[in-house]
Amino acid sequence: MIGIISAMHDELAELLDILQDKKTVVLGNREYHTGNITNQKVVIVFSKWGKVAAAITTTQLISSFKPTKIIFSGVAGAINPTLNIGDIVYGTSLIQHDMDATPLFPKFEIPLLGKSTIETIVDEKLYQCVEEFNNQYYEYVSPEEANEFGIKSPKIIKGIIASGDEFISDNIKQKQLQNDIPDLQCVEMEGAAVAQVCDEYKIPFHIIRIISDKADHSAHIDFPAFTKQIASKYAKGILENYCS
Ligand code: ADE
């Protein structure tokens, strides 16, 4: 059984539509949807926003459904200035950008875990599905829709993702993150929390983030429409293929 998490229903709505033999269990105020995608058993859940929500959901998912791996799919704001709307970040390590227990521990270090970043092991099949999706992009997203959101030839970048309990929507904070965390690709609000839970429970974890905004003053404008119309198509395109 593979666990699939996103923060919002809109991010996985199209994948949920193709879930077969669906059964829903409510635990801790969240709906866990089990079933099959092609022949792969999955459990899909929306964590809600933020690190605490994500950690609650992941812990419950692991203890109740015993997944062999967990995949997170969702949207993120770009920190790397070369990233554009619609690009995909395949997360290779996760950091909590709002973790700061100085002077007791170095900035960003998770106290008593002894590290500030959690590395992921690249799942070659998942990465290949991301590439296949991108190579056949216009079979999944129409040219009109891509145009509506200013998406041009999306690219894939492997790299570091930062999470914190803050929606980043100003240039100063955006630049500060760029300076504080070398090679940071994008920012969101859940991934590093899911990564920490998976690290502590020793469950393989993978994460894909689709760039919905540039974490600047206009970050919120297209966010709801992008999530519903575009991000959901990425998740279905990539994960349906992954489960086949
Ligand atoms: N998720 C998508 N865009 C984001 C942003 N700008 N800040 C935090 N989380 C996000």
What are the salient characteristics of this protein?
single chain; 244 residues; alpha/beta; Rossmann fold; five-stranded mixed β-barrel; 8 helices; 10 strands; 36% helix; globular; binds adenine; adenosylhomocysteine nucleosidase activity; methylthioadenosine nucleosidase activity
Question: What order do the strands of the largest sheet run in, or round the barrel if closed?
Answer: 5-9-8-6-10
Unreliable stretches covering 5 or more consecutive residues: none
Give the second-level CATH assignment, the architecture. Answer: 3-Layer(aba) Sandwich
Instruction: Please report the total strand number as a whole number.
Output: 10
In percent, how helical is the residue content?
25-40%
Mean pLDDT: 96
Classify the fold: give the CATH topology.
Answer: Rossmann fold
Major sheet: size, sense and barrel closure? 5 strands, mixed, barrel
Write down the CATH class: Alpha Beta
CATH level-4 homologous superfamily = Nucleoside phosphorylase domain
Question: How much β-strand is present in the residues?
Answer: 25-35%
Radius of gyration: 17 Å
